[in-house]
Amino acid sequence: MDADTAGGDVPQQVEVGEGGGGGGAMTIKDALKEVLSNALCHDGVARGLREAVKALDKRQALLCLLAKNCNEAGYSRLVEALCNEHNIKLLKVSPACSGVYTPVSSPCT
């Protein structure tokens, strides 16, 4: 997925296989919440530019979420370039939804 289409052409519902939580269709928002919840349990979430760049550069990331309202064009270009270079999926999220993807409390407890 390239940076130009990362934010706009995302399907709103995906089919979940037998191993999924609800067993039916779920929205991208619900799927991301579930994936991030599992990643938080296993200490697999990098937050902030520095942590994200380190994880992207070491090819430790499978998915990168980037806020659409990022004010620093250099930050966005850096993250997009690292994702493209290492074939890491990049998803641009709206600022209203970004809080949903980073829960304050750990879901593991």
From TrEMBL:
Residues 7-16 have a biased composition (Low complexity). Residues 1-22 are annotated as: Disordered. InterPro entries: Ribosomal_eL30-like_sf, Ribosomal_eL8/eL30/eS12/Gad45, Ribosomal_eS12, Ribosomal_eS12_CS. It comes from the Eukaryota. GO terms for cellular component: ribonucleoprotein complex; ribosome. Residues 30-94 form the Ribosomal protein eL8/eL30/eS12/Gadd45 domain. Pfam families: Ribosomal_L7Ae. Keywords: Ribonucleoprotein, Ribosomal protein. Gene3D superfamilies: 3.30.1330.30. GO terms for biological process: translation. The keyword Hydrolase does not apply. One of its GO terms (molecular function) is structural constituent of ribosome. Belongs to the eukaryotic ribosomal protein eS12 family. This is 40S ribosomal protein S12.
